[in-house]
Structure formats: structure tokens, C-alpha cells
Q: What sequence folds into this?
């Protein structure tokens, strides 16, 4: 195991049968749409967590998949094991039942499971958006024998504050939060290349459902981990398919969530299948990362399948990457096996290096000396009888490294000359592992 997972904060686990409103309640408490919500039962498959602060209490809130014994769905047993593991680590359980449907045999099965854990529990009667439903919920849910239910409507924000007050009463006081500078790492790629297995290999425990069925992961799942290479937040995302294969509904939202995960990451780990090589869809996902100007580490997974031909296959894949991902020659590459754990430390080390590169600053004087020498060495091409002239350059920011060049006319910048200047900066300073941004502005903007 490479690092240690988690938090010393108390853990509150939301549990219940499928489609009782667990994710809606989670999203209401967290205050943002972290879990996908659809009418389709079984939408949430993995355990999704977020830190919550209420009054003087802080805790980790976990949303679990719907628990149902004997579920014939291919993911049913995997979801059940995830729920059982989450309950085992809970300090408090929020057992959700649907006030509209009433208590069902499936609810009683989940209640029995929670009762056997011996964990403190609050029964939450969800979808109670009327006095009639509240009354019915109190009567039926009380029969579970787990205390007085709390009727809530997460959708309409009814009694959620009361529920949080009860949660706070059940939890111990927590110390003030200490912000850690974590590297936000989005694990991205097309479906079924081993993203979730890779995350589990890093964590050292099965936090994300792994299946051979493409599209298993639907939500973007955040997990904090402390490693010898620094603290990370791992974001496991749904696989991105070609546009023509994206369906509306859950999978459509998953792709949007993947794009959002890339946007809020520092570095993206693009997982590709080492047994198949670099595909057009791999380059499409890499393009999404480049478009967002993020750090990029390519994780060539499933290298355990290479056997004795490891070195030859590694050279072949390296050549493929240079050929098919020439638009991002600065990307770092790690050869890994999520199954055996090979290369995981190397992957985290490269991700930390990419994050450090995103924070690197170039002194203004050195930057101007470098670029003036580049202009003298290789003059810009003449465009419409005019030649590009550089007046002044500065690094305007980091995350991503952003350079502003004041010139006579930005329209004179040819894309090949832009690439030349970027290579010049990268050769002089170590920006390997991250995209950089170069902005050309007319001199009058500088003067104003």
C-alpha cells in the first residue's frame, strides 16, 4: 500500500434500499450536486464521500449504493459489499426509507443489516413533503424498532436542518480543520481501461467498484490519501465514450461530471490499456485535459499482461505516444499494473512533479532575456508584409503557468512560432508534466 486513506473525522453513512432518495439527501447536505440523481434504481454504485461542517461538528458524509439482498443485477453483489464495508466503518448511520412507498421487505433487510452492526442509527423517512406523508412515515418507520424516525424532504429542504442538528448531537466534538495542500488528481480515460482498479491499488483497499463491464463508475468519486510523495485527492471518473455512443440520462451526466472533475483537478492521470495501445478515444480524452490546461500523466495500465516482452512493449508504447499524442509531448508517462501494484509509486511521484511544475515561476528579467535571444536566433515569419516584434514578457500566473507577451500585433503570431516559443521556455525551465498558456497582447494594452 502506497499511502494512508481518509480522515480522523467521524463518519456518517447514508444507507437504504435502492431509489429511496439517498443521493438527493447527500446532495442537499453537501450543498452541491456530487452524486448523480435519476429515477432509475441503482444509479449510485460506489461510496461517495464529502466533508461536512455543521455548527461545531465536522464529519465525513458517505452516500452508498442501494442495498438489496438477492439483487440479480450484475453489480448487485459488488454494491452490497461496498455498503457492508461502509457500515462497518460508520460512527452513525442514516437509514433511509421512502415515506411514499412505506416500509417494504427490502427496507427491513437493510434495517436488520444495520442492527447487526450495532452502530448508532437515525431512521430518515425521505420524500415526506406533506403532513399526510409525515404522519404515515412516523407510523410505519417506527415499526423498524430503531428509534423515532425523522421525516424529511431533501428535494424541498424540509426538516434537513433538524436532521443535521440530531446528527451533530450524536457526534463528538472535532478539532478545528487544518487545510492541507492536496494535489487534486483526476483519474480519466475511456471505459474499462482499469481506472477504478488503479485507484483501489493506490488506496490499498476496494473503495471503488471494479468490474469488467464498461461504464461501471458513474459518479466522480473523491478520496483523500497521504503518501510519501505528498497528500493527494484522487478523483475516479466515469469513462468517456465517443460522442455518438453517449446516451442521455445517467451516462450523459457521468460525462459532464468527468469534464467537471478535470476542470477542478491539478493533474489528470490518463489511463490507457497497455494491451490495446493508444486509441483515438485516448487522444480525445487527452485533448480534453489539454483544453483545460491541466497537468497530464499518462498511466499505461495492464502491463502485467506483457510478460517477458515488457521492455519491447514499453518501447513500442512510448513510440506510439510520441506519434499519436504529439500535441502534448510534455506529458509524463508511467507504466503500471493496477492488478499487481507495479509502477504505482512512480505514478504518484510523476503526479507530484507535474503539480510542482504548475507552480514554477520564471523571473521576469530571465524570461525577457530568454525570449529576446529566441527572437534573434529564429526570426518570426513575415505575415502580410509585417514581422512580429516582442516588446516585453512576463509570467502572469501559475496553475497553469501563464505567460503574457506584449507584441506589435498578435495576429502576426503563426501557430508554428507559438510552438517554437513554448519549446524555448520548456527547454530553459522544467515545465514537464503540465500544459502552459502563452497569451499575446498588443503593446497598447501594456501601456494602458
A:
Amino acid at each position: 500500500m502506497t499511502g494512508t486513506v481518509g480522515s480522523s473525522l467521524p463518519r456518517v453513512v447514508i444507507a437504504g434500499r435502492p431509489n429511496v432518495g439517498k443521493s438527493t439527501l447527500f446532495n442537499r447536505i453537501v450543498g452541491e450536486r456530487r452524486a448523480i440523481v435519476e429515477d432509475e434504481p441503482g444509479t449510485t454504485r460506489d461510496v461517495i464521500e464529502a466533508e461536512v461542517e455543521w455548527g461545531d461538528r465536522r464529519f465525513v458524509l458517505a452516500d452508498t449504493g442501494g442495498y438489496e439482498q438477492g439483487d440479480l443485477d450484475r453489480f448487485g453483489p459488488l454494491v452490497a459489499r461496498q455498503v457492508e464495508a461502509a457500515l462497518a466503518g460508520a460512527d452513525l448511520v442514516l437509514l433511509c426509507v421512502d415515506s411514499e412507498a412505506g416500509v417494504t421487505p427490502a427496507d427491513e433487510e437493510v434495517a436488520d443489516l444495520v442492527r447487526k452492526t450495532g452502530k448508532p442509527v437515525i431512521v430518515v423517512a425521505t420524500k415526506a413533503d406533506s403532513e399526510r406523508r409525515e404522519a404515515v412515515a412516523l407510523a410505519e418507520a417506527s415499526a423498524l424498532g430503531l428509534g423515532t424516525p425523522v421525516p424529511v424532504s431533501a428535494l424541498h429542504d424540509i426538516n434537513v436542518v433538524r436532521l443535521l442538528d440530531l446528527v451533530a448531537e450524536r457526534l463528538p466534538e472535532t478539532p478545528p480543520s487544518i487545510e492541507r495542500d492536496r494535489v487534486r488528481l483526476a483519474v480519466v480515460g475511456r471505459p474499462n481501461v482499469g481506472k477504478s482498479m488503479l485507484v483501489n491499488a493506490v488506496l490499498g483497499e476496494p473503495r471503488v467498484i471494479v468490474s469488467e463491464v464498461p461504464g461501471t463508475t458513474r459518479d466522480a468519486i473523491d478520496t483523500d490519501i497521504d503518501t510519501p510523495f505528498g497528500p493527494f485527492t484522487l478523483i475516479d471518473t466515469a469513462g468517456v465514450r465517443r460522442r455518438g455512443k453517449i446516451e442521455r440520462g445517467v451516462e450523459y451526466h457521468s460525462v459532464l461530471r468527468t469534464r467537471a472533475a478535470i476542470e477542478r483537478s491539478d493533474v489528470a492521470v490518463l489511463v490507457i490499456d497497455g494491451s490495446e495501445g493508444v486509441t483515438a478515444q485516448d487522444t480525445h480524452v487527452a485533448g480534453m485535459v489539454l483544453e483545460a490546461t491541466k497537468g497530464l500523466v499518462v498511466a499505461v495500465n495492464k502491463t502485467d499482461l506483457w510478460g517477458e516482452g515488457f521492455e519491447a512493449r514499453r518501447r513500442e508504447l512510448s513510440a506510439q505516444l510520441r506519434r499519436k499524442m504529439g500535441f502534448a509531448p510534455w506529458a509524463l508517462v508511467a507504466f503500471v499494473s493496477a492488478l499487481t501494484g507495479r509502477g504505482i509509486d512512480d505514478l504518484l511521484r510523476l503526479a507530484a512533479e507535474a503539480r510542482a511544475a504548475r507552480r514554477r515561476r520564471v523571473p521576469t528579467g530571465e524570461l525577457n532575456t530568454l525570449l529576446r535571444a529566441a527572437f534573434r536566433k529564429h526570426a518570426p515569419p513575415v505575415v502580410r508584409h509585417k514581422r512580429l516584434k516582442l516588446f516585453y514578457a512576463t509570467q502572469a500566473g501559475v496553475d497553469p503557468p501563464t505567460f503574457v507577451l506584449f507584441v506589435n500585433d498578435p495576429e502576426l503570431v503563426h501557430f508554428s512560432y507559438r510552438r517554437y516559443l513554448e519549446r524555448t521556455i520548456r527547454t530553459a525551465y522544467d515545465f514537464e508534466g503540465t500544459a502552459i498558456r502563452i497569451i499575446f497582447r498588443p503593446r497598447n494594452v501594456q501601456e494602458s
User: Anything to note?
Assistant: The CA atoms of residues 192 and 212 lie 7 Å apart. The chain has three domains: 4-170, 183-358, 364-447. The first helix runs from residue 22 to 30.
